[in-house]
Amino acid sequence: MQQLRDKMTGLIPEWRNEIHRLQVEHREAVVSQVSLGQLFKGLRGVNAIVCDTSYVDPVEGLFIRGIPVLELVNRSGEEVFYLLCTGEFPTADGLNELRESISSRRDVPEYVWKMIEAMPDNTHPMSLLSMAALAMQRESVFVKRYREGMKREDYWEATLEDAVTILARMPVIAAGIFRQKLRGKSRIEADTSKGFSENFAHMLGLGIEQPTFEEFVRQFVVVHSDHEGANASVLASRVVNSSLSDLYYSISGAMNCLAGPLHGLANQECLKFCMEIYRHFDKVPSDEQLAVFIQQQLDNRRVIPGFGHAVLRQADPRFTAMYQFGKRVFPDGEMFSVVDALQRVVPPLLIKQGKAKNPYPNIDGVSGCMLYHYGMTEMEFYTVMFSTSQILGICAQLIINRAIYSPLIRPKSVTTRWLNGYTIDHH
Ligand code: AMX
Questions:
Q1: Would you state the pLDDT for residue 61?
Q2: How far is the CA of 393 from the centre of ligand 1 (A)?
Q3: pTM value?
Q4: By alpha-carbon position, which residue is closest to atom 37 of ligand 1?
Q5: Ligand 1 atom with minimal separation from the 44 CA
Q6: If we measure between CA atoms, which residue out of 346, 334, 140 comes closest to residue 247?
Q7: DSSP assignment of 46-76, as one string?
């Protein structure tokens, strides 16, 4: 990864200078305000974090380093990681070098496998993934160099070292959890000729019957790789990392957050909803039948899984990417056909209801159903698929944060009593 390191070494002084200049020239510029309502609504819409790796435009969706995500879906995991870290694609040599660095670090320590094997069968795969990251913390290069008195300027480089090891091992661990704990089968060895995503697909072992699975995982990884710097799991990792905790602790923190039903579990909820519809009609319903069913759900104050978004105000381009893939590969799959019908039927009904700010489908509305058609029926693993992809973005963001000397994240909290007094004084 020498070229990646060299590239970043060249860029980092520019980043540091720009941030320094902004702070000197505009330190008092107000970039956001927080209303009382926002305090009780998870700080929605408050500009509180700086992130240069990706941005979600309310209309056009996710941009990674300024590039619409739809233009990136055929890129490899390594290319996207390099892009996230530097804002540019690697040269062919730079890409090969990064692939080799990742490939050479794939050996997962035996103690990690022993720990995973020792855990009871009903341990959630997300717990196992998070525990594995935490177990390997003892190997952190950042910690070792920090103890040796590493200079602050070099923190990012030690973090890059940790990142490449984590990127190499986490897909191996995730696939191992899938094979051993969910399938009761032996692990599949990594294939050194394959890159990040293709190797992950290979080790999961579903591609044997499904030749397009590698291509699918490649797209899945790209669309889930990064999504700004303040979504719940990335923010969790940033807070952990900001105390100078290393990348292993930070990744584990992100995994713990992704494990929640409001975050990484959404794709599984969407698949369950499609199954519920299929079971209800005992077939893929007609659009008219489905419209009646959806209207009943809305009348019963149920949210329609797979639709809406906190930031986006149009169809999620990540949905579009996966949907187009599904149209090509599983046009007649039952669950895909339900998704297809939903994306026609639901938006007009949500618009008519007039509550949802975004009536269009999101990525989670289709990703779980695609995994299902590939034979991955173990829904509890879907969040692991998401997490393993998001590690690319988290690692890139945290390397950059070290490079630009991101400080401890420590906003102020206030009491309800203070709020009572404040609101009386201001009205
Ligand atoms: N079905 C029915 N009602 C919906 C809706 C949906 N899919 N999406 C939003 N609404 C309702 C909300 O419940 C809210 O109602 P209320 O005023 O009675 O409380 C109102 O519309 C306004 O909500 P919003 O501002 O448009 O959305 P939000 O930012 O509060 O929440 C989200 C966004 C994704 C949680 C929400 O749209 C939702 O619950 N969708 C269904 C679950 C889902 O698909 N989750 C996956 C999230 C995808 C992602 O972000 N990765």
A1: 93
A2: 25
A3: 0.95
A4: 308
A5: 29
A6: 140
A7: ------SSEEEETTTEEEETTEEGGGTTTS-
* One-letter amino acid of 253: G
Check residue 307 and give left, alpha or beta (phi > 0: left; psi -120 to 50: alpha).
Answer: beta
Cβ atoms 99, 79 nearer than 8 A: no
Q: How far is the CA of 231 from the centre of ligand 1 (A)?
A: 15
Q: Kindly report the CA angle at 94 between 93 and 99, in degrees rounded to 5?
A: 95
Query: Does the C-beta of 162 come closer than 6 Å to ligand 1?
Result: no
308 Cα nearest atom in ligand 1: 37
Contact indicator for 403, 5 with CB cutoff of 8 Å:
no
State the pLDDT at residue 315. 86
For position 426, what pLDDT does the model report? 79
Residue pair 171/203 in contact (Cβ under 8 Å)? The answer is yes
What is the pairing mode between strands 61-64 and 67-68?
antiparallel
b/e code 110-130 from CB counts within 10 Å (16+ = b): eebbeebeeeeeeebbbebbb
Q: For a pocket test of ligand 1, which of 307, 343, 345, 366 has the largest count of ligand atoms closer than 8 A to its C-beta? A: 307
Q: What is the pLDDT of residue 266?
A: 87
Interval between CA 308 and ligand 1 midpoint (Å): 5
Q: Is 334 exposed, middle or buried (0-12, 13-18, 19+ CB in 10 A)?
A: middle
Contact partners, residue 308, CB within 8 Å, separation at least 6: 350, 356, 357, 358, 359, 360, 362
> What pLDDT does 262 receive?
83
Structure confidence at residue 427 (pLDDT): 73
- Measured CA to CA, the distance from residue 144 to residue 365 in angstroms comes to 43
pLDDT beneath 50: ranges in the chain:
none
> 40 C-alpha to center of ligand 1: Å?
17
Pocket test for ligand 1, best of 69, 309, 318 (most atoms within 8 A of CB): 309
Domain ranges, ordered by start, for the chain: 266-373
Q: Answer whether 70's CB lies under 8 Å from 317's CB.
A: yes
List beta partners, residue 361: 307
Measured in angstroms, how far is the CA atom of residue 364 from the centroid of ligand 1? Answer: 13
How crowded is residue 336: how many other Cβ atoms within 10 Å of its Cβ? 23
Per-residue confidence (pLDDT) for residue 208, from 0 to 100: 67
- 266-373 is classed CATH 3.20.20.140: no
> Which residue's alpha carbon is nearest to atom 42 within ligand 1?
305
